[in-house]
Design goal:
The chain is α+β, with helices and mostly antiparallel strands. The chain contains five helices and 16 strands. Bound molecules: (1E)-4-oxobut-1-ene-1,2,4-tricarboxylic acid. The site of (1E)-4-oxobut-1-ene-1,2,4-tricarboxylic acid (NQM) has 16 residues, from α2 and α5.
Length: about 350
């Protein structure tokens, strides 16, 4: 089933329909996506990391969980397939997909789908609209970066803080210095490196194409990213798509912070879901790089608008004992096509 989840898109599979052997599975997925090839001309991939994503869903053997969700990031041009990162955007479509495929029986009204996020061993709940006992994609919810309005999918995440790096602040500091640049290294579901745009000579409102064309900037960011990866307990991240590099600047449109995110080599047209959750958490730290720049109310839980190139994403964070215990946000999803794909 081809689905849009949030601002991402890709094919969704039942695990039982794919080979169990990882190498055989990956070869089939590369054929399906059309990689390696920057244009992905011979497959379903959309020639950008945001549309070169795969979700694999299966019934969960865990108590109190409905389905396991494994996310795969396919890099279009190299054909590398990584399980190192999560995707909260694709996650939005996991709930509808699980119901459509009969893995979860829908209630009348709304259905809560409980998901084990295999990549990071975290847990999320999705509230899917099922007015007559089946999924509806129609509704009034709007998310920036997606035209039109759709049925809302409410996401609640638990245990995302430190899910991949061991702690919300993997180095134990709210601020580190790499290559002379202040950085906040944070993991609230998406290992991220927050850097002030101004420290790199940028205004922070450059559009993604301008940033992607700046080779000197990309080289500098990659050098910082490789060092940050080791400091964040991620090892050698040369071939990994984490950590993300999030450039922050004062908000322009009433949010708490403005962002431009390298994911990590292309620039996001909006912002990743867990990427925004990590940026939001990092900007709330009084000792972090966002101090004096991010605007937020000192309440708990708090709602935070993270600005990005095509609008803003609202994140709700609940804190306890210096870490984030619950993250909530709104997405939409849509079934685009259901059928047979030819590897
Ligand atoms: O941060 C892009 C996306 C993502 C990831 C990326 C995501 C998240 O927007 O949870 O959704 O950062 O590679 O799909």
């Amino acid at each position: 089933m081809l689905m849009r989840g949030g601002t991402s898109k890709g094919p969704f599979f039942l695990a039982r329909d794919l080979p169990a052997d990882v190498e055989a599975r990956n070869q089939i997925l590369l054929r399906i996506m059309g990689s390696p090839d920057a244009r992905q001309i011979d497959g379903l991939g959309g020639a950008h990391p945001l549309t070169s994503k795969v979700a694999i869903v299966s019934p969960s053997e865990r108590a109190d969980v409905d389905v396991d969700y494994l996310f795969l990031q396919v890099t279009p041009e190299t054909g590398s397939i990584s399980v190192a990162q999560n995707c909260g955007n694709m996650l939005a479509a996991v709930g509808p997909f699980a119901i459509e495929r009969g893995l979860v029986i829908a209630d009348i009204g709304q259905t809560v789908v409980r998901v084990h996020m295999v990549n990071s061993d975290a847990y999320a709940e999705l509230v899917v609209q099922t007015p007559d006992g089946s999924v509806t994609y129609e509704g009034e919810a709007k998310i920036d970066g997606v035209p039109g309005s759709h049925a809302p999918v409410l996401q609640r995440y638990f245990g995302t803080a430190g899910a991949q790096c061991g702690a919300l602040l993997p180095t134990g500091h709210a601020m580190d210095r790499i290559d002379g640049i202040d950085c906040t290294l944070i993991d609230n579901g998406m290992p991220s490196v927050l850097i002030r745009s101004q420290d790199l000579g940028l205004s922070g409102d450059e559009n993604p194409e301008v940033l992607e064309a700046n080779e000197a900037l990309k080289t500098r960011l990659e050098a910082i990213r490789l060092q940050a990866g080791v400091m964040m307990n991620l090892g050698n991240v040369t071939d990994k798509t984490i950590p993300k590099m999030c450039l922050i600047a004062p908000p322009k449109n009433g949010g708490i912070i403005s962002t431009r995110t390298f994911i990590p080599h292309r620039v996001h047209q909006s912002v990743g879901v867990l990427g925004a959750a990590s940026a939001a958490a990092g900007c709330m730290l009084p000792e972090g790089v966002g101090a004096g720049m991010a605007m937020f109310a000192d309440i708990n839980p708090c709602q935070i608008d993270v600005e990005h190139p095509t609008g803003a994403l609202t994140v709700e964070l609940e804190w306890d004992g210096g870490t984030v215990v619950r993250t909530a946000l709104l997405r939409t999803a849509r079934k685009i096509m259901d059928g047979e794909v030819f590897p």
